[in-house]
Amino acid sequence: MAMEQLTVWDYLIQTKHPSRKILTDAIKRLEVYAIRSGSKNHKWYYATFTRLIRKASGEDEMLYTELNLCIADLIKVCITVGIPYTEIYELCKEKIEEVMSERNHLAESG
Q1: Cβ contact 52:91 at 8 Å
Q2: Which residue in 5, 19, 2, 3 sits closest to 57, CA to CA?
């Protein structure tokens, strides 16, 4: 793929964006947590969370960074307080919707 054909998202992934590393570390923890709790679908976590964030952030690098960090923090908190792994994805989806709603509200009022 030629450099000019890369999307912002592709570039961020290929350059190992720091916020992406933080998210993948959190997903690794979630994977271990889920395996210990009996998950059989843990191998899909990276793709699932990546797709979720990519869809929400589009080509917006700042939003991509914000969502990576926000979701990484939420995953860590959920594991720490013992929220079942089966609920964590839904909580992350809700958090992304909340962030998007706040951004839309700020854009409309600003």
Answers
A1: no
A2: 19
Radius of gyration of the chain (CA): 15
Hey, what's the torsion of the CAs at 65, 14, 44, 58, to 10 degrees? 50
Give me the residue label for tokens 């909580």. Answer: 91
Span 11-28, pLDDT tens digits:
666 666 788 899 999 999
Tell me, rounded to whole angstroms, the distance of Cα 31 from its chain centroid.
Answer: 14
pTM for this entry = 0.83
Largest CA distance in the chain: 47
d(CA 30, CA 61): 25
Is the Cβ–Cβ distance between 19 and 65 less than 8 Å? yes
Burial per residue of 39-58, b for 16 or more beta-carbon CB atoms within 10 angstroms, e otherwise: beebeebeeebbebbbebbe
Q: Are 50 and 32 in contact (CB under 8 A)?
A: no
Task: DSSP letter for 40, please.
Answer: S
Q: How far apart are CA 2 and CA 10, in angstroms?
A: 12
